[in-house]
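Job type: complex structure
Entries:
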Amino acid sequence: MTSLSFDIAHLLAGGLVLVSFMMLYQDRLSALINVYALHALVLTLSVAWQAQVQHAPHLYVTAAIALGFKAVVIPLVLHRIVRRLGIHRDIETVVGIGPTMLAGMGLVALSMVVILRITPEADPLAREDLSFALSVLLLGLLVMVTRRNAVSQVIGFMSLENGLILAATGARGMPLVVEISVAFSIVIAFIVIGIFLFRIRERFDTVDVGALDSFRGERR
Amino acid sequence: MDLIRALLIQGLQMAVVLLLAPLLTGFVRKIKARLTRRQGASVIQPYRDLIRLLRKEAVLADNASWLFRVVPYLVFASTWVAAALVPTFGGGLLFSWTADLIAIIALLGFGRFFLALAGMDIGTSFGGIGSSREMMIASLAEPAMLLTVFSLALVAGSTQLSTVAALMSSPEVGLRVSLGMALVALIMVAIAENARIPVDNPATHLELTMVHEAMVLEYSGRHLAMIEFASSLKLVLYLSLIGCIFIPWGIAAPGAGLVDYLIGAVAYVAKIAVGAVLLAVFETSIAKMRVFRVPDFLGAALMLGLLGTLLLFVSRSL
Amino acid sequence: MATIDVSFFLWGVAGLLIVAVAAVALGRSAAASNLVYTATFVLSAAMLVMLGLHLISAPGTVLKTTLPIGLPWIGASFKLDSLSALFLGVVNFGGAMASLYGLGYGRHEEAPHRVLPFFAAFLACMNLVVLADDAFAFLLSWEFMSLASWALVVSHHRSQASLRAGFIYLVMASFGTLSLLLAFGLLAGPAGGYGFDTIRDMPHGPMVVAIVFVLMLLGAGSKAGLVPLHVWLPLAHPAAPSHVSALMSGVMTKVAIYGFIRVVFDLLGEPAWWSSAVLIMLGGITAALGILYALMETDLKRLLACSTIENIGVIFVSLGLALAFRSGGMGLAAALAFTAALFHILNHSVFKSLLFFGAGAVINATGERDMEKLGGLIHRMPYTSFAFLIGCVAISALPPLNGFVSEWLTFQAILQSPELPQWGLKIIVPAVGGLLALSAALAAACFVRAFGITFLGRARSDVAAKAGEVDRFSLLAMFVLAALCLAAGILPGFVIDGLAPVTHAFVGGSLPSQAHLPWLTIAPIAETRSSYNGLLVFLFIAIAGWGAAFAVHNFASRRVRRSAAWDCGFPDPRPQTQYSASSFAQPVRRVFGSLVFRARETVDMPPPGDLRAARLTIEVRDLAWDWIYTPISVGIAFAAVRLNRLQFLTIRQYLSLVFLALVTLLLVLALWT
């Protein structure tokens, strides 16, 4: 592999981590959705570049799915949901932005140390992709645990899935069937959560998941 | 002969930054005015302002100490020295080894330290609020800047600006996401350090929203002129810094001929002008943030710097 | 001229001890203060001169001697090598300056008989610690150093705060000595070789090395003020008279670091790589937390003591880097990091003494330590304020003064870290670099606050408004230190070259010689990599500033008019409307406080019509107390109540306890492999 193609792959994968960080930084719901669209776009580019480099045409399909679904359809739907719920202006974070970003840095460092230590003889691109993918995954989880709003939790969940796709494209030879099934299950999960959201909203007049805790009598 | 030429180029560089600084400020103001559909003052208005201020008598508060009168010159001198050490149109300046990038940042810190002291000298509440907020912003901007320097130094293997510039213009650097992050972080720091929107507003007259201007509220006459001059110099410095690190093309190599230097000068002016236009567009399209939103903004710059450094570690060790 | 040997310095120490005894005899007599400080000054200065002569006449030689005192058949051995020489210089220079300052400052002492004997003894013990060449002499002098400084801390024993500070200090010091005792016990091994040479030659297993490292971290770290063992420091250092505070902050913490370097870099062999990671992380955390504590303080001397914690953190980061580079086989980088540490040790001893002297001068002139009651002293105390300003610039790591050079060297060492083999270190070091940059910037904020509130603005109380300049001895001591700050800042190459023998001996490499680089530049690795020239930076700033002032004054305008402050048209004559120390810290408190200190601000705003004053209460907590010390003290109290029952047993029960203990020990012996 030439150094330029490696550099571009590095750039795109690193960009994905960067966009994950932007997600941590956003404090408006609609901005968060836009960043998620950007996340998906960077993922698309990254996957397409991998398809080009690895001469793996089936990855183009993955890229197309990512572009169509994640970068366009899902953000549009989310925007609609948010507007219908009337919460497009607010977001509550459980922890402040500073500590969250710090924790994010720690997670990135952790995933790098782990991946680079356990895969010393793998292909450099795959190693790097894996470490970035693990970072994106952990950052997605972090978004989920630091936000209380159900919509932003959904976005965290979706970005986590983007990390999985990145890992899958980096590790050559993951069959298309598996990818499609992963994508499909994510869509199902998305629909389920979407329905769930409206149910919560109907019952509690809010999408703050804290309301569920108090309903179960767990809040003090 | 070589020494004379080197001295000449160094002297020219010092003169260029000095003369260009007010023009740049005027240019940014003009573009901002045009963007908001105003006619705006002429681009040479800052020169007129400076001369007018220099000629006026200085009004000092009754309890101003000697420090208050010395600080404007110290701030001006340290900023000028720092700006003179950043390669603009030609690399390999005679004194470029005097201070590397870390020392240049520290020189700016020196100026800020004294300016913050001067803000507290009269004992007014506005001066104090300006000083304390300026130091708070600086305490976050400086580490972000240093982490950016770390990533640059990892790529270039040096903190010496001329070496960094020479290496960055060579093709072996390639595309690196860390450099992109460093660039964004550096721009964020530059915005904060130069008291531009969205961190601070250089044109505000609402005292409670301002940081830098509140600090220098008691200055007048020639002292104010020196301080204004120093802030224009700082803007030139940061634009030159971004130019020489991230768009180093056109900088004349040490010992180059006259034509190379001319090309370097044209390229430099073009870079600065583009930077100024971008700054003006950015400033007109964004609102000023609350003071306690600034730490998040600069914290993001800090994280970008750190993330860039970490990513470099990864890509280098493969 | 006769060659100098260790006994000269031991005679000097003996002289100091005699002065201490004489001071007891002199008691409260009026001349005591002058006599004692003159004597300690002469002795310290003489030892400095001898040290200088030794270093010039016989560089690189190691001097040894054994005295027939101490443990029978072993005696007490003393040695002067390059490291001891460096720290001997720090101790005696600090001692000489403190004595000089004391000549003026000591006159205001209410109870000189409580200070003078211990002052001389304290100096003597610190000298002995750095000269000691066996574990016994080292520990004994270390313990006496702690005791003498404890006596100085409680010398103003009437105040409750001093007593509490003294108690906490005593507990921490005993804990530290206990750790050191265990460390040396492990180092000496079953054969019981207490001489440093024997320990050095003995192979130590990895387990022993690890335990000794941790024990040294506890023992020396508690003396130096490493977080979380720092809690005593902001209480004890300020409680002593100011020149003693300067000695404790500027010199005694360095003696603690000497002990750490001596054991970890010299006696212990090669610690595992994780120990350097621990050191670097602890150092970074200490630096950042220390300066944040300092920013929250309103007491000038406590602020200075807290900033000592920060500087200790910076030194420990460099030491950790040196350890990591050394075990990674990178001689040049190790030398760079070690030089940075030693340079910062020198710098900190100079400017921290200067700042404590300045604080002492302020206390002498006003009787106030609380910054909220000071202000405007630049008009009343011009010389003191100038010297204090130099110290503030130096400690804020700003060019062209000395603090910047060592900070710069530390950053250059951090930039070498990508070559390290361990992944953990590669990730930790840049993060700690960010922490160091943060603490350097916060230090600037902290000292803008310290100087701005104390010396600038308008007087916040009557005593501040009526203050006067201090005596000449104090000023002389301050100006000598300020001149040194500048000299070391603009001519760092000579200092680095002077440190080369130490780095060569302890990390096995040294930086290329700096003094003959053109224009006295320093370039630790290579000039294309990084270089800094303090002299030219200083000259450029001076010329540009003076030239600008000259041009403006001659070609534009030099007229000045005095008038009331502008303050946006609403000047308020009451000094209470100025920004105070607490309000200056508010932005930083809001940004970092809720995370680091659990800072809480509560506003009590009476409703309209109510004449009650509004109140803003700030609560700042030290989490080290909450998370470590309170649980420990609760645990101890609990255990004490439980164990109290053992005092009321019958004879038979006591006997059975002894019996059980004996059987248990025998069992351990039987099961020991």
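Summary: Residues 55 and 596 of chain C are 46 Å apart (CA to CA). The two ends of chain C are 59 Å apart (CA to CA).
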